[in-house]
Amino acid sequence: MTIFHKHRDNKSLDDAQLVCRCQRGQPEAMSHLIVKYQDRVYNTIYKICQNRDDAAELTQDTFVKVLENIGTFRRESSFYTWMFRVAVNLTLNYCKRRSKLSPVSLDAENERLEQDKGKLAAMLADPNGLDPAAVAQQKELSRLIVNTIGQLGQDFRAVLVLRDIEQMSYAEIADVLQIETGTVKSRLSRARTQLRELLETVLT
Q1: Taken in order 110, 112, 114, 118, is the CA torsion positive or negative?
Q2: Which one-letter DSSP state was computed for residue 101?
Q3: What pTM value is reported for the model?
Q4: How many domains does the chain have?
Q5: Are residues 114 and 173 in the same domain?
Q6: Distances (CA, A) of 139 to 35, 36, 87
Q7: Quick one: average pLDDT of 78-99?
Q8: Which in 121, 146, 159, 180 has the greatest CB count within 10 A?
Q9: Same-domain pairing of 191 and 150
Q10: Which residues, 6 or more positions from 33, have their beta carbon under 8 angstroms from its beta carbon?
């Protein structure tokens, strides 16, 4: 499964028809939706929960819950945001049940980080230079960014992942998280600030 990849094209091309077919009891339609979205859902969940096995299980739980509730979906929002609401809610609830997130170890990144410090330092020196989505396109930095995002509080982590990695609009994030758009912007600003500060500590 890929990490930090934009998937904005054709996201709603067939969704309405596929949902209608699901609601009419055509299981192959749900199979199409799962194939279409499973990697994106998994990657989003993984970046929030920071555990691949848990992410795989939560991805499966997401599609089970979507299938169980597809008959009640009333199109008050897009299927895309409704499905991600299910995925993120399951993941955040899972994180809350854990007494504490396992500490993220950067030991495995140390050797690679030594080679990347100059590049990352230059980005951090520019107030507008830390674009997580752009930085993450550089393969050599992507794991470091993922690990550092894992040190954010779960609410900040969720909004950062949905905006800067999944590339959702503010309105879509508000719909997924069931919060106001202003709250999305506030959390995102604080998440980006905290991410910068955490990365700066890695360089010192």
Answers
A1: negative
A2: P
A3: 0.72
A4: 2
A5: yes
A6: 25, 24, 26
A7: 89
A8: 159
A9: yes
A10: 15, 18, 19, 22, 66, 79, 83
Same domain, 130 and 160: yes
Distance separating the N- and C-terminal Cα atoms of the chain: 32
pLDDT at residue number 28: 87
Rounded CA gap, 79 and 73, in Å? 8
62, 41 contact by CB (below 8 A): yes
What's the CATH number where 173 sits? Answer: 1.10.10.10
Rounded Cα–Cα distance for residues 141 and 113 (Å) = 8
- Is 62 within 8 Å of 87 (Cβ atoms)? yes
- The token pair at 87 is 């995925």
Domain's final residue, options 49, 66, 97: 97
pLDDT one-digit tens code per residue, 93-103: 998 886 444 44
Q: Is the pLDDT of residue 151 over 50?
A: yes
| CA atoms in the 13 A half-sphere facing the CB of 160 | 27
Phi and psi for 106 in degrees, rounded to 5? -105, 10
pLDDT of residue 90: 95
In a domain? residue 102:
no
Q: What pLDDT score was predicted for residue 130?
A: 53
